[in-house]
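Please check this:
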Amino acid sequence: MTRESAGARTHPEGARRGDENRESGAVGSLELGGGNREVERPDGGIDRRGALKAMAAAAAVPVLGTIEAGEEQVLRAREAAETAVLAEMQGAQFAPKFFTRHEYQTVRVLVDYIIPRDERSGSATDAGVPQYIDFLMSDQTPPPGPPNPTPRFYVAPTPAQINVRGGLAWLDNECAHRFGAGKSFLTCTDAQRRQVLDDIAWPAKAKPEHSHGVAFFNRMRDMTAGSFFSSKMGVQDLRYIGNVTVAQWKGCPDEVITKLGL
């Protein structure tokens, strides 16, 4: 599987975070100011929390069609992920709230196929994407049903939780079906993992029997992109600097004009 085919869905056709997407603003393009003026500093800049809130709101846009998450949920997930990453840097071990240990390790491997480390920035796991997704999945409102006064009563999962947990199981089952009993996505080779992901990364090309895997991968790709590009690392990757004063306007850089053929 190529990096482009596995990549975060920043374009309707599923292109990864390539330079052309960065330059065109296809990923999380923002217009800060106006409705977000409350986050501006007196000097015209934007404080850290204000920028995160705006990025979280934008990051929620591609995800709303596939997961029940609002702006505040996305912001809580972003803050929880950053807290978890800092704690891990200090030696603490992250304990998933939603995923089992096996599921969480699978998510860590999968998201790094979607956004791997490159010369421009770190990978999805470097940006705390697995922790973000775990928190987002645990921060779901249960569907309507009977009251749940004690933990021993069953609480029905949300559609998003069913899709993600079922999708991870589908991934392991598909690997076992293709490569032998006992095989899971974690125990497969890199080539085997890419073979499976190639079959579900492109919806228009996928076989009907892979429809469940396609739906799962679409959701994971959206959440990975939303998490990464709302993180500090992702904002730096976009080279977005917010509302800052431009002392002198020098026009479009020559290299961009040349690339566009203007």
